[in-house]
Each structure stands twice: as structure tokens, then as C-alpha cells.
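Researcher: Let's continue the batch. This sequence belongs to FmdB family transcriptional regulator, and it's 70 residues. Same format as the previous ones, please.
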Amino acid sequence: MPVYAYECKSCHHAFDIRQSFDDEALTRCPACGEQTLRKKFGTVGVTFHGSGFYSTDSRGSSSSSGSSQD
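Model: Same format as before. Here are the C-alpha cells for FmdB family transcriptional regulator:
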């Protein structure tokens, strides 16, 4: 089960909780009782391996574009 981070917009109480994918998102803050609780989303690190992901890895200028020299 994934761990989600929550933060209250009213009192700024932050905590992590383990929830199933099927569980509803929490809305009530356990510290102050207000319904201003929101999920926090962090950044995800992505690494691309292999060829074709960068402009330097693209096909050369001698591709068949339909034009020919006479």
C-alpha cells in the first residue's frame, strides 16, 4: 500500500498515512478538526536510458525525406 502525505491548510499540521488505492482521500484534519486537509504531491525523479530521448540522439540529417539530388 502506498504512503500519502497530507497537510492541513488551516493549522499546517502535516503527516503521512498508509492507504489503499481504493480508500477515499482524507478531508478532516486530526489536529484541528477542520475539513481543509489536502494531499501533498512531491516531485518524481525520472531517468531515461537508451537512445532517442535527447536531440543529440536523433536521426542524422541524411534521412529519407523524399527529396533527391540530381
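Researcher: Any comment?
Model: The chain has no helices and three strands.
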